[in-house]
Amino acid sequence: MDKISRSIKPSIEAALKRGKSILLLGPRQVGKTTLLKELPLDASISLARPSLRQAYERDIERFSQEIEALAEGCNKIPLVAVDEVQKIPELMDAVQDLIDRDIAQFILTGSSARKLRAKHALNWLPGRVVLFHLDPLSISELPQAYLNLDNLLFYGSLPDIVLEDNNEYREQDLESYVVTYLEEEVRQEALVRKLGDFARFLSLAAAESGQTVNFNRISQDIGVAQTTITAYYQILEDCLIAERIEPFLKNSTTRRRVIKACKYLFFDLGVRRIAAAEGIQPSEKIMGQWFEQFIGLVLLRHARITSHKTTLHFWRDLEGREVDWVINMPDKIIPIEVKWTDKPTLKDARHLKTFLQDYEQEKGYVVCRCSKARKLDEHITAIPWQDMLTEIMK
Predict the structure, then answer these.
(1) Which domains does the chain have, with CATH numbers?
(2) Quick one: pLDDT at residue 117?
(3) CA 20 to 30 Å from 393, out of 35, 86, 87, 201?
(4) Contact 338, 324 (CB under 8 A)
(5) Is residue 66 a contact partner of residue 75, using CB atoms and an 8 Å limit?
(6) Which residues have C-beta within 8 Å of that of residue 370, sequence separation ≥ 6?
């Protein structure tokens, strides 16, 4: 397979040229370390190495001294990568000082925002540090040969999983990922008192990914307090495993009453399937649910790369009308219905018509498995999932 070009790379390079430092967050194994290797680093420090991590924990000042020594030997401000920076959040104070004194420029990576948020590290030096988020591979980053919908729905799009041709090995690697997450991100960081309760929650949260959340029902199913369930979801967010999707709540011309509960999307469909223990023989209904989540993840990743002012939502009124995804842009609103069909009809778009009328918008889309785009009526077009980004964002 040819080298995969990450869409985020040009934006990172542009920020570095402007003299900015970078904070690059993303779940485990999405390619942060690989991306670092493609950048013009003068030094790289991996806090995933226990011996080095322990050395800095014993002597934080050593970090600053080593960077200052590196800077003296360079004819420019050195670019230094610090991988898994959340493992020693105290280093952020030293990094801030070194940036402030123009000693070094940094690319900091992390797979958890929990400890960084606890120290308010994401707010320091506004204008000097640029925050980026690296996701699993998007369809715009994959070569044509790897745009296999079944593989993407079953095994997700973590780079190492995509590159693995053997489905049995893919399954083993995904199972290992879920176990590693529980062990390293939860047990070792002592995020929860009872790992068994959290493991049951993780399985249920994965199974309900993409559905509106009922915190009270989940607390009853697991047998823990509702406040604990809320805290568990916050752990998923902080560890970048799940993303909160808010309902679309802008007032319509009809002032229609809408549901205000949120959804959570797991960051990768393969990880989600393993965590939910759903196996590899899903029903057509389950495939449709996976497809809907897949399209949501594609839109979310694209919005994150292209514009911080573009947000992803869903819409559902109290009478049961719903639109799977709503892209909220500064100049327009784009409603999208996702259907597991290769023969879309206007019936598939009946809620889109309601939304377009309520919000006085011109275009809506049905994303499906059809081979070519087709107009369902004057305002609604059915499009193949592979062409979605090109068609919708043009």
Answers:
(1) 9-133 (3.40.50.300), 138-394 (no CATH)
(2) 66
(3) 35
(4) yes
(5) no
(6) 341, 342, 343, 344, 382, 383, 384
